[in-house]
Amino acid sequence: MKFHLLLITLGCFLMTACGVEKQILEDVLIAEIVGYDDAGSNKIKGTVVVSVPQPGEESLGKEVYEAITHDVKAARQQENAKTPFPIVGGRLTVILYGEELARKGLNDYVDTYRRDPMVGRDLYLAIVHGKAEDLVKMELKLIKTPGVQVKELIEQNIRTNLPDVDLHRYLYACHGKGIDPVLPLLETAEERIRVKGIALFKRDRYIGKYIPYEDGFLFKVLSENFKLGSYEIKWKENEYTEINNVESKVHYDISNANQNPKVRIEVNLKANLLEVQGYDLGNPVDVKKIEAKAEHVMGEKLNEMVTMFQDNNIDPIALGDMAKSKTRDFNLKHWEIAYPHIPIEVDLDIEMIQTGIAE
Amino acid sequence: MKFFKGKEETDATAFQDNSKDFFELLKRFEASNDFLTFQFPNEDGYTISYFKSLVSAQQLHEQVLAVISNQPKKDLQQLKDDIPMEDIKETTDISVIKRLVLAGSIMIRYKKSDGKCLLIPCGQSVKRQTSIPESEYTVAGPKEAFVESLDTNLNLIRNRLPIPELQSKEFRVGSISQTRLVVLYIDGIVNQQLIDTVMQRIDDIDYDTIVDISFVGQMITDNRNSMFPQLIDTERPDHLASVLSEGKIGIMLDGSPHALIGPNTIISFFSSFEDYFQIWNLGTSFRLIRLFAVLFSILSSPLYVAVLTYHYQVIPTDLLPILISSRGVIPFPPILEAIVLEGTIELLREAAVRLPAKVGSTIGIVGGIVIGSAAVEAGFVSNVLLMLVALAALASFTLPIYQISNTIRLIRFPFLFAAQLYGLFGLALCSAFILSHLLKLTSLGSPYLEPLYPLRLPDFKDSLIRLPFSKQIKRPQFLRTEDRIRIRKKAKTQNSQSDIDE
């Protein structure tokens, strides 16, 4: 008994040193969104928005801090010099990178977040067309805090037009073999934040090209199975049809990956017609016609997109990754050399399952 | 500690030694003013002595004095036959005399100098009528509760279990109080080893006055230092009757309106007897809600402290502004805030229990509304915590057994301190300590966490969930009953669906 008491007392005394660092909620400044821009001569400019509690009010004020340094953590250190409380990154929702910085490669500036245990799972990365700083500093109308606004914006679009992108997927794509990452490309337009498209990467470098927002649906169709989203098919001038995705499935057929690779991408799209101009939907023949024509128009676009990837020698659909997982003794070197010239065939099958009352 | 114990023992033996001699005893009785001794019917008549505070005057007049005054003086043996009362004793045994006179018997001697006397039981005790159960009140079900009289209580049980197998073993406990204690069980169902354990523990009770059954409960439990009660204290005769037939043991004490039930598992403390009055799916749901309420009650304010002090990362984005703005004006760290508020609630509870019911409701209003809103407005505590603590208090009131609700009340303080020291890790650490304590705990020798540990799947039928009566074919395994089967007519359940409907 005495021995136990001794142990407990000793434990109490000795374990006081084991405590974690206290971070009382109102005594830290919680960073919501942070933007990094190229500041010339190997320096970056970090801009961070923190929420500041307004005593007695339900909403939070926001405060912007800036610093120009060589690396990310030093930027935070410099920002701390100006704040009454330490800035903490545990609730960061979005990290933005300016276009210029992204062209130089993001690895150095993502690394610290990759290894920070405080950073959560649902952290989004995005590229800003122009300067990230401008977007971070924007005064928004709908939702006051830009962190929440951008996060909701990306999440909302991930369901329809953007591929699933967060920190971990980016890291997987960036460091994996036979796969290149993509990130949402945002821009500021008339006091609003807008998704401009999908920024294309080679490893961690933004190649300066992007898939426009309207075609994001097509890219999503190519890269994953999903259930929402809509696409406007252009027949000719002033004649459009809007289709709504009910269920889209993609299957990759990669043969002979080690010698003479051949890729066939099968896309099955079940859709309903939202808006039609120039057709009579009561006529089943017309529906078949629309299907055939849509397959043709969209198929062409998909093929164009894939060819564009090959021309730029990037692989955002992760065909290499797929081939690696399906092929015994996969020869990555051979694949990488062969990739730009592989015949890739996109086989699109559209089935209009609903033409009646639209939404 | 040892010093006091020794002193107590010598006192008790001295008390017994003194009454060796009959006249010595009489002298001691006469020292009290309510002990009467007189000659009846005349100077040469019998010597009658009794405690007038213990004897029923009506019985004395009608059945004793009336008989004596009409007859010539006979010897005691004959007188015994004349008096129409049961269980009259003629004895010279001092210990018997002492006990019976103090229980309200009339002592009649032939001559004043005689040592031999006739003892006529003529006691009266003030009794309360059976009333509605208060701490275990249920909307449905019987509304009878035990009272202070042991015989009434036994009567309530015997009426519910009219079988000869229901046996009661009587003991006297307390060296001064000599209180009657009864162990109740159903022979043929209950495990014999269990009875032996209980009887032995009761024999070992060594204390001067046993006033209430809770004294006994504290003296015979397995772990006397555990915060967790191991014996259920019930005031419902229907509850006692039903667990007796399950194979448990009941203990009742004269003068205490409660019965002890054992052995129990921790889950039986969370199950109200009302669960059985409702259909099984409702009963199960309410039982689960109660379990959730207990967890919430223990963990809510410690979680608040842990998250606000260490883990701002886990707060949902939408909740963040609300929390920050309500915390922003408060000068204390979360732990002090929580302790202030929990302390206030404990004060309120303690005050409400001590005060009479009419003043109690005022305390509720003063405490709940005035202090609560004033504390928030003054910026002492945050809205969110006030809500959490109030909810936690409310949740702890859902517990049907009073003893465990006290445990729950107190147990959140170690959790609070652990949360302050190490955050969520501290909570895990504290839970581990409590869980290991519970794992080790036994109730009259059977494991406390059964059926969770040791895992006994059949016993789940009446623990976390309550299955319908048709599924309760066997008695609980942990009781190790001699007769395991509860429902014997198995074939009948097959077509119980078809009533006579032709």
What can you see in these coordinates?
- The complex is a heterodimer of chains A (359) and B (502).
- With 359 residues, chain A is α/β, with parallel strands linked by helices.
- Chain A folds into two domains: 24-213; 225-359, GMP Synthetase, Chain A, domain 3, CATH 3.30.300.210.
- In chain A, 32% of the residues lie in helices and 33% in strands.
- Chain A has eleven helices and 13 strands.
- Chain A has helices at 2-15, 72-80, 99-104, 107-114, 132-137, 146-158, 167-175, 216-223, 284-311, 319-326, 332-338, and strands spanning 29-38, 44-52, 61-69, 87-88, 94-98, 124-128, 182-189, 192-202, 205-212, 230-236, 239-255, 262-276, 344-354.
- In chain A, strands 1, 2, 3, 4, 5, 6, 7, 8 and 9 form a nine-stranded mixed beta sheet that branches. In chain A, strands 10-11-12-13 form a four-stranded mixed beta sheet, sandwiched between helices.
- The longest helix of chain A is centred in the C-terminal third of the chain and has 28 residues, at 284-311.
- The relative contact order of chain A is 0.10.
- The mean pLDDT of chain A is 85.
- Chain B is α+β, with helices and mostly antiparallel strands and 502 residues long.
- Chain B has three domains: 19-121, no CATH class; 150-264, no CATH class; 281-447, no CATH class.
- In chain B, 46% of the residues lie in helices and 11% in strands.
- Chain B has helices spanning 2-17, 22-30, 57-69, 76-82, 94-102, 150-160, 192-203, 213-220, 237-246, 280-309, 320-328, 334-354, 357-377, 383-396, 402-422, 424-440, 490-494, and strands spanning 35-40, 46-51, 89-91, 105-109, 117-121, 166-173, 179-186, 232-234, 249-253, 259-262, 442-443, 446-447.
- In chain B, the strands form three sheets. A five-stranded antiparallel beta sheet of chain B has the order 1-2-4-5-3, with helices on both faces.
- In chain B, strand 1 (35-40) and strand 2 (46-51) form a beta hairpin.
- In chain B, helix 6 (150-160) packs across helix 9, helix 10 (280-309) packs antiparallel against helix 14 (383-396) and helix 12 packs across helix 14.
- Chain B is elongated, with a radius of gyration of 30 Å.
- Chain B starts with a helix and ends in an 8-residue tail after the last helix.
- The model of chain B is unreliable at 1-19 (pLDDT under 50).
- Chain A binds chain B through residues 15-16, 18-26, 28, 30, 51, 53-60, 88, 90-91, 93, 118, 120, 147-148, 151, and chain B through 308-310, 312-313, 315, 317, 320-325, 327-330, 333-334, 421-423, 425.
